[in-house]
Amino acid sequence: MTVKAILFDKDGTLIDFHATWDRATYDVFESLAEGDLGLIRKLAKISDLDIETRTIGPNSILVAHSSAEIGERWAKILSRKADQKFLDEVDALYGKFGQKHLTGFPSTPSVLKRLLAEGYAIGIATNDSENNAMLQMDQLGWRDHFAVILGYDSGHGEKPGPGMVQAFCTHTGFDSSEILMVGDTLHDIEAGKSAGALTVGVTTGPGHGAGLPDEADATIDDLDELFKLLQQPPFC
Question: What domains does the chain contain, in order, with CATH numbers?
């Protein structure tokens, strides 16, 4: 087979972005702003979060950017210094509230188990922190499925850079041409392509697959459609 290992994005790909992060983000804002509704509204506006519906828009900075990038913008609104202490606080709050609202897609557990049974190595590349990603996978009972879990702070850079894909190659021992990057944003696809990997876009994220058919090697509407793709060129 051509593809021997699969690297997944996390939010919007393995877990339900809206069910997990819409309410969690509002909770984070409440905590950072200490209940100040004016500050909450400013944080929501810059983040494209609808206060009334608690819904994150498809073009939000929360969809694909790292918590470090997001934290810098929030710090300005809060008149805080965007230092490591503040970024750690943001990550800790997202860890706390993310676990509270964490929701995986129904098909994810069976897809991961079947991929392992068929001999694929699998990993995660997320612009969330590594620790939060590990905690979330622990909570869902999926952590042992992954050969490696990489975050924006794992030392390999952020998506759309190629670093996490290259690190996955090093960890698994496979060439980038044997790696498949699966994600719901153009950042995921660019990360895979820039490292020389094959790419598949999924339409399950908040952007509903916008732009993916033009950039990814294939696009699917649910992870369980992967198995049909893996039996077809260029994936086999």
Answer: 5-16+104-229 (3.40.50.1000), 17-101 (no CATH)
Confidence of residue 192 (pLDDT cuts 50, 70, 90): very high
Q: What share of the chain is helix, strand, coil (3-state, %, to 5)?
A: 50, 15, 35
Q: Answer whether residue 24 shows pLDDT above 90.
A: yes
What residues are paired with 8 via a beta bridge? Answer: 124, 182
Q: Give the model's confidence band at 1: pLDDT under 50 very low, under 70 low, under 90 confident, else very high.
A: low
Cis-peptide, bond into residue 106, ω within 30° of zero: no
Interstrand relation of 49-50 and 55-56 (parallel, antiparallel or unpaired): antiparallel
Is residue 201 within 8 A of residue 219, CB to CB? The reply is: yes
CA 70 to CA 62: how far, in whole Å? 7
| Coil/strand/helix, residue 198 | strand
Q: Which residue shows structure tokens 């793709």?
A: 229
Consecutive H or E run containing 88: helix 84-101
* pLDDT value at residue 102: 95
DSSP 149-197: EE-TTSSS--TTSSHHHHHHHHHHT--GGGEEEEESSHHHHHHHHHTT-
What's the token pair of residue 90?
């943001």
SS3 132: helix
67, pLDDT greater than 80: no
Angle CA 127–49–24, to nearest 5: 60
Task: Tell me the two tokens of residue 2.
Answer: 């051509």
Radius of gyration of the chain (CA): 17
